[in-house]
Amino acid sequence: MFYLGFFLKEKNEAFHEFSKLCKQLQIYKNLLIVTIRSDHDREFDKKGFITLCNDLGILHNFSAPRAPSQNGVVERKKKPYLRGYG
C-alpha cells in the first residue's frame, strides 16, 4: 500500500489527474489500482469519476462523513509537504 499526493490549483482538476494517473500506472508500471478512498467532497462524487472507477474495476470507498479521525488522514499526510510552501 502506498499513498500519492498531487498539488492541484482547482478541485475540478482531480478527475483529469486521476484518470491520467490510472493510465500511467497501467501502461508504464503494469500496476492496477484496486481500491481508492476519498472523502465525500464533490470532486470525487461526480458521474465521470464514478464511471471511470466502474469501468476500470476500482472499488471506491468513501470515508465516513463528519468523522474527524478519518477525514484528517489526508491532512496529516500532506502537512510535511506544505510546511515549505506556507
Descriptive overview:
This protein is mainly alpha-helical and 86 residues long. It has one domain (11-85): Nucleotidyltransferase, domain 5 (2-Layer Sandwich), CATH 3.30.420. Helices cover 47% and strands 9% of the residues. It contains three helices and two strands. It has helices spanning 14-28, 47-56, 68-82, and strands at residues 35-38, 59-62. Strands 1-2 form a two-stranded parallel sheet. Helix 2 links the parallel strand 1 (35-38) and strand 2. The longest helix is centred in the first third of the chain and has 15 residues, at 14-28. It is globular. The chain starts with 13 loop residues before the first helix and ends with a helix.
Report the portion of residues in β strands: 5-15%
Low-confidence stretches: none
CATH class wording: Alpha Beta
Shape: globular
Report the structural category: mainly alpha
CATH architecture: 2-Layer Sandwich
H/E series: HEHEH
User: How many strands?
Assistant: 2
Average pLDDT over all residues = 76
**N→C terminal distance:** 29 Å
Major β-sheet, in short?
2 strands, parallel
Helix content: 40-55%
| CATH homology group | Ribonuclease H-like superfamily/Ribonuclease H
Q: What's the CATH topology name? A: Nucleotidyltransferase, domain 5
The largest sheet has its strands arranged as 1-2
Topology:
Layout: H1 14-28, E1 35-38, H2 47-56, E2 59-62, H3 68-82
Parallel strand pairs: 1-2
Summarize this, please?
With 86 residues, the protein is mainly alpha-helical.
Tags for this model:
86 residues, mainly alpha, Nucleotidyltransferase, domain 5, two-stranded parallel sheet, 9% strand
